[in-house]
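Bug: token stream looks shifted between consecutive jobs. Job 1:
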Amino acid sequence: MFQQLKNIDTVAKLQRMFNIVLMVVNGIVLCFGIYKSYEFADRAQNRVHILYNGKVLAAIATDRKANLPVELRDHIKTFHEDFFNLVPDDKQIQATITQALYLADGTAKTAYDNLKEAGYYNNLVSGNISQQIQVDSIRLDLKQEPYGFTCFATEKLVRSSSTVTRKLVTKGEIRDLKTETDNNPHGFLIQGWEILENNDLPQNK
């Protein structure tokens, strides 16, 4: 009789252990299922469908941080091209400078005002001089925002009789405005901008 009760108790313990293991396994499976459903939902939110020529194309939306250096460099490059690529036409100069000023703070406006007051833009127009810039490289410091940068470029002043080449170096900081607009599609703003060097390079004879 005692042995029979002992066997029943053993069976009951095994049954309880089995039930506990079953609940743990069910809990793990449930948690895994919830995790995968959230992962699937996240992937679905990042997938964008585009209608192009009557066809539906899938595109993947990526985290902005993954493309941050590329976007920062493009914003800096665009600003410098708008500020320095000029033709001898008052309206064109005003239009491109205005576009550049949307991408930077008052330090860029101050630089523009100083050049204008010194007669720089009038000299371009009266001398029929085109100004061209090629951004060679941009060095970024991504340790903290606002992000520091140094821009290295080659500037050319093209006259009918000659071309003067200059080395252009500028620096500043760039911060995220968290908002994109038509005039500032990346949503960044250059601040504390200054020209470090703008010197003529030796001409090849």
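Job 2, same session, no restart:
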Amino acid sequence: MLCLLVGITMAAAGQTTLREQNQLLFEQLQQVHGLTDEQMRDIRAIFAHSSVLGQGNPAISQHPVTALQCAAKLEKTGISYDNAQFEQICGHKYMAPLYDPKTASAEQAKACIDQFEFPDIPCVYPVVWVKAREAAQICAAEGKRLCDAHEWEGACAGSLQPPDYRFDLAHDQEPESAIHRMRLAHNAAHQADQSWGYGREYQRGVCATGSFKTAGCPGGGWQLCGSNTYPTGDFPACRSPLNVYDLNGNAAEHMNLPLNAQQMASLGSKDLGYTEMKGSWFIFDTYRAHEDWCRWRAPFWHGTRVMDAQSHANYHLGFRCCETVEPRKPALLRK
């Protein structure tokens, strides 16, 4: 695995265009995740419709750590993110089961989540400049789906709880007002049990939050704002109790916020709800822009329907995927 990453990283050293950068990304996706040619055609087509979708503007992005340095560090410390048990449960590499350890086992999980930000490969920069619609389409091309907000929150807090969306508060035609009421109720309900992916207390330096913003970046813009992210998995301690990484730090992440049960991706809906952005990003150690505890829900930032063709994209905004799975019986019960 590390040899593959090192080889591709070395080959990428002289690449300077987004097209070349994405070509290397496609090669990694197919080799690591075993995607079919048909799946890759669908993913390539999604990327082809965007002039910015990728790992950031290669002309101005300044990553604090290279993919090669990340791979070397993991190899030196003997850290491996491979997990045969998780692969058996989830059916994919680098996915983790979502469940509540107090009431269930990993084998009883009904859903899994990517352990890393897309492309869900350790020591690879996250894909950014992605619209929520594109994120949902890419997940679908992989045979997965976009996560519902409560799934990401459960992955971060270490226990997947039943959905607690206050649909009773979404009783008007204005989604921003409905989401505001739902958000206030949800955040108040979880105020006393704040936690971060790595523990109960906020800490600096544990996750990929020590980067910097490009000089002159006004808050957005392909030509002005570099995606100065870290390789995923470069901070092994930035791990939730369910073994999901980089939930705090690095790229923020798109997911689905439903206003009724018919918009829940976890229930099989294709008519998704509204955009929610989770997680902090790569300069939180110097500029803590907002709250970022696991079950905190953000204001209606750049809000649209997930599948809106004009859903938001930016230099520090990425995603990860979830998947619904058939629960497997615990090993002792299979005998």
